[in-house]
Amino acid sequence: MNIAVYFSILVLVLLIAFNPTMNISVFGHTFSGDESASFLTKVEMLKIESGLAQDQLSNNVTVAKEHAEHMTETITANDTKEIKERNPRLATELNNTLTDFVNTFESESPSESEVKDKVSNISDVLSEVVSARIDKEQLNNVTVKALVVYDLVGEALEHYGSALGMEENKTSGSNATENGSNETAKIVDDADHQSAQAAISRAIDMYNEIKPGENTNSTELGKSLNSLKDNIDSKSPFDEIDKIVDEKITPLLNGIFKLNLAEEEHGGEGDHAEEGQGHAKSESVNSTENKNHG
Length: 294
Fold this sequence. Notes:
Elements: H1 2-18, H2 33-56, H3 61-72, H4 77-86, H5 88-104, H6 112-133, H7 136-139, H8 142-163, E1 176-179, E2 182-185, H9 190-210, H10 216-233, H11 238-257, H12 269-275
Antiparallel strand pairs: 1-2
Helix pairs in contact: 2-3, 2-6, 2-8, 2-9, 3-5, 3-9, 4-5, 5-6, 8-9, 8-11, 8-12, 9-10, 10-11
């Protein structure tokens, strides 16, 4: 027994000695497609919020600061723990980079060049984090990408609800006003409205990257995503926007990409806020039948 243990240790030492770049993290947690999609959505939202903070700096420092603060709500302690399993240095670097970025907006007049450099730095760190945290085959997996599209739609819906003040007032009807012949909703938080617009725009871009060949369903899904964007841009009542997600986008994503998402007859801001954080477990995500996006 002692001899066997000795030789096992010797083999491990030799492997490390002759392959110093060996990824020791293979002994850590293996993440499912659902977990990978949820994390990739958070990465997308960090990029979105940091970009919006930079864009709004010259227009409205208060709104820019709010976008920076959104970033602190995106990455959780559990996310940091999972990154640390793969690469402790990156976990610390990401935390420090995000904290430093948010602190920049504590100044009454942050430097535009300084913010620009820090946005670029955040993007670089996130690229490293994704490489360490997500397996390459899942990064290229169409089903995982489709789940990210769905999550981004959920993020858009959640931020739009917040833009209407639905966290304080759950009845969307009271936020509607008449504007000529069109009913519009009253925006009470510009930063959340901008986040909603950016999230659905990114969802559309990602869908176009994985869109299957032209057919009735794929075309209809593209139209529905663009319809959702138009309604968010034009400040439509929340119920109208929610209806597009429940009756069009979710069923079409399910049908095209076999996501096994839980469809709901009656949606709401709270329902889709939860959907943005996770999905119904889908066996297809980890199935060998999945096609990888080349």
